[in-house]
């Protein structure tokens, strides 16, 4: 919810809505069944001349103004139509949410970050597993249809698995509708009704208290926004025993990296079927081959530079959190100079939030200490080591397995046609699993860790590009080493192990061993 509200012509602050409280008659429920102590405290604060005291007291109590204000929306509604609530500056999305008593996840993000990066990140984070499972299931259905000649042949190695698998993967990624309830500001706080909007804002503490986990969509602007830090503070206060374990940090760089990576593998698989028979001709034309390789090489260098910049931002986050101070965080109402709203001075968000945080933690200094120590370590650890986790890379890299299933299916169809039922090429499936589950994650891990080690920006642009190119060269060497290792094992063991499956097994074992060694040995923190 942090930062601006894009539904309004100008960014909306709590103070601006607070200044309208008397106009819209926002009432705080002070029923006796809430406890005499709480009622008396609230009445005492409500008697204060300063509206800031009233707003701070309501937020700090962490109780909604009324049960109907506690709302959540299904993930499918929020991410439908490519995350329309995030990317559309106009429109009423309040109807996407409904009243609830518990919220699975509170989505905390900065409205100053890239919208499309957030949408891509959320699509892979929430729909990536479903996309991988459904696409694998669709590929499993294609195999018997091709072998039984229900599907026509159009390439040497089937091709249908890559085509159907890739299509189902992308369609599921975009259109899968998860029912998990989440809080997203533009869907759960009314953007046009002043009373509902004011009640939603002052009930923010109650909303976060009712959330089981906090998802931080991190980008370099996150730690600078006062509202983002309030959400973090409210979650830490309301979940004291398990707060750090329930905070999930997802860098928004993972979205575009995952999208481009999966599209690159899909394109490569499909092109290999289309131009596969022409590769020998291309090999005789080095200039044409070089031109074909230029695009992915430039793309990989750009990605290497992006990863290095990302790790520099993580370093900056450590500095920001290490010296965090509420008084230095960016606040919209302070940037506006607190203009009058309907003849009343706009109350200051910073003062309201300072008092709420002071109530939760005993003092602002206590909150500063927790942010500068425990929170900083937890967030930096996640951002450094889990930017692309193993299972995330597996979900993104599943299209490479479709190509191997194509090769398996094409060989299986030819063997069955010739009556060689006993020679089912299981070794090809083993190779596909090895490249998918071991090689791709190892290459991604090597690039991540090297990106962290060589994150420092060079003073000369040419040297900086050269350093990114060296990272790409290292990744290319690792990537290219696997096929050579596979061929070497196959040829050297052919005399002793006539069964292809047995010859491929050592390659698979060594590949997964290298993955484990890379996870244990490559540095990820300094």
TrEMBL record:
Q: Which keywords, in A-to-Z order, does the entry hold?
A: Membrane, Transmembrane, Transmembrane helix
Query: What stretches pass through the bilayer?
Result: 123-148, 253-275, 287-307, 387-404, 424-447, 468-485, 505-522
Keyword Transmembrane listed? The answer is yes
Note whether Transmembrane helix occurs among the keywords.
yes
- Protein name (record): Uncharacterized protein
> Which species is the source of this protein?
Symbiodinium microadriaticum
């Amino acid at each position: 919810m942090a930062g601006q509200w894009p539904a309004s012509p100008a960014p909306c602050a709590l103070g601006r809505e607070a200044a309208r409280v008397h106009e819209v008659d926002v009432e705080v429920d002070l029923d006796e069944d809430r406890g005499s102590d709480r009622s008396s405290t609230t009445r005492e604060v409500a008697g204060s001349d300063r509206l800031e005291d009233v707003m701070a007291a309501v937020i700090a109590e962490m109780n909604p103004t009324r049960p109907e204000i506690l709302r959540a929306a299904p993930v499918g509604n929020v991410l439908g139509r490519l995350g329309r609530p995030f990317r559309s500056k106009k429109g009423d999305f309040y109807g996407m949410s409904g009243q609830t008593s518990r919220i699975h996840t509170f989505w905390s993000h900065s409205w100053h970050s890239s919208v499309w990066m957030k949408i891509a990140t959320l699509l892979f984070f929430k729909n990536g597993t479903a996309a991988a499972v459904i696409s694998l299931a669709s590929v499993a259905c294609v195999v018997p249809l091709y072998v039984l000649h229900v599907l026509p042949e159009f390439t040497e190695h089937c091709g249908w698995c890559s085509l159907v698998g890739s299509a189902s993967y992308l369609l599921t990624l975009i259109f899968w509708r998860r029912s998990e309830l989440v809080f997203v500001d533009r869907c759960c706080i009314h953007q046009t009704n002043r009373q509902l909007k004011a009640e939603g804002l002052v009930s923010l503490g109650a909303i976060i208290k009712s959330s089981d986990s906090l998802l931080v969509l991190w980008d370099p602007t996150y730690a600078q926004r006062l509202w983002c830090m309030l959400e973090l503070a409210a979650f830490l206060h309301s979940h004291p025993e398990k707060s750090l374990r329930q905070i999930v940090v997802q860098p928004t760089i993972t979205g575009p990296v995952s999208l481009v990576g999966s599209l690159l593998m899909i394109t490569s698989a499909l092109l290999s079927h289309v131009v596969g028979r022409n590769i020998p001709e291309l090999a005789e034309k080095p200039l044409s081959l070089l031109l074909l390789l230029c695009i992915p090489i430039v793309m990989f260098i750009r990605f290497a530079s992006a990863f290095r910049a990302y790790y520099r931002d993580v370093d900056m986050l450590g500095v920001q959190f290490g010296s965090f101070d509420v008084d230095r965080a960016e606040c919209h109402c302070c940037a506006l100079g607190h203009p009058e709203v309907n003849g009343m001075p706009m109350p200051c968000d910073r003062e309201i939030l300072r008092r709420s945080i002071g109530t939760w933690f005993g003092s602002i200094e206590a909150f500063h200490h927790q942010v500068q120590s425990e929170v900083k370590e937890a967030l930096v650890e996640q951002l450094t080591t889990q930017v692309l986790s193993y299972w995330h890379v597996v979900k993104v890299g599943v299209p490479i397995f479709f190509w191997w299933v194509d090769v398996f299916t094409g060989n299986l169809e030819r063997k069955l046609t010739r009556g060689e039922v006993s020679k089912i090429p299981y070794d090809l499936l083993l190779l596909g699993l090895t490249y998918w589950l071991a090689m791709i994650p190892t290459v991604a891990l090597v690039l991540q860790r090297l990106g962290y080690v060589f994150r420092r920006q060079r003073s000369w642009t040419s040297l900086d590009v050269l350093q990114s190119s060296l990272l790409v060269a290292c990744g290319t060497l690792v990537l290219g080493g696997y096929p050579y290792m596979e061929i070497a094992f196959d040829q050297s063991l052919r005399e002793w192990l006539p069964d292809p499956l047995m010859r491929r097994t050592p390659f698979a074992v060594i590949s997964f061993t290298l993955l484990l060694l890379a996870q244990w040995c490559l540095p990820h923190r300094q």
